[in-house]
Amino acid sequence: MTPVQTPNPMPADLRPLTALRFMAALWVALYTFWPNLDVGFVPNLTAKGYLGVELFFVLSGFILSHVYLQAFAEKRFSYRGFLWARIARIYPLHLFTLFGVMALGLAATFVGMQIDSGILSWKTLPAHLLMVHAWGFAGEAGWNHPSWSISAEWFAYLTFPLFATLAWSLRKRPWLAAAAAALFLAGLYAGFERVAGFPLTEATFRWGALRIVPCFAYGCTLYLVYRRAPLPRAGLLALAAAAVMIAAASIFAWDAVTVLAAGLLILALASVPNERAGLLASRPAVYLGEISYSVYMICAPWQILAVNLAARATGAEDKRLQLFVWLGIVLGLIAAAAVTYHLVERPARKALRGWAERRRAPVDHGAKQSETVLQPSDTIV
Prior knowledge:
mainly alpha; 16 helices; 68% helix; globular; disordered N terminus
């Protein structure tokens, strides 16, 4: 079989997108912690912080297509290997934070600290352990709330061959594919809100699996545009400017516009060569992007622990903290995420992948080499 050639050589890693992951995680964190800041207003940008999850979803479709779509087309794609790599990437930290919230909840109950009564939701524990709690099986929020999006990601991973098949069939018309995905996203957002009575971008445990579908598809089609030819400098600047302006305007408008603008920003940043990306390709920025999954996943348990301790220390019974105390907690989240990344996330991922490689038969050596090339997927959820 003649290999399918990629039209343009592309870097294995897209460092500006790795840095963008941290910005998305920080956006969610600010949205989560803002109610604990003793101020009388909420900036519109902060109020839209839940859309950081949508940014993750679009990024996920883009990066996984970047890493796996060519192998899928050339029939070098190992579905089993793909799923194991995804499990190694997300499951250990999911378990760690799940049991961490369990320990914090039990400890808080024991010492008489006030916590949300729904955190220790024992009847939903099996769904959380199976990562299907955003598929409608949980019925209520519980445990580590942000993990609903990991359940949604797991749904997208399981169905990735469907996304890849559709994307590859549209590879010769990338802009048409991206436009169709954008229309699908906007139409689903409008239709869902009309039927459900609330925006799809606010769905978590009941409709989280559906929430990822249009974003993931949009990311896959944007990758087709990038794959055809990374944008030239003039087009890049125009697209980046348009994305920023649309995103700024959409802070006050419909969520779908923000998500579509975020996709354009992803496409623009992906088209910037690493050597010209400046700060976004710097070692600190890439490192923060690497720990962004930990930032996101420990956000809720860190809030339970740090905010309760700070409130007791400062006498803030309503858990609304002064600015410098609040800033210390937010910065502490990043430090705690770095510790979690080095002690839990990264070692567990390496151990699981190493175990899989040791079990792989020698006859599968070619597939092993293919998947070794695909390691940049480590940089995305």
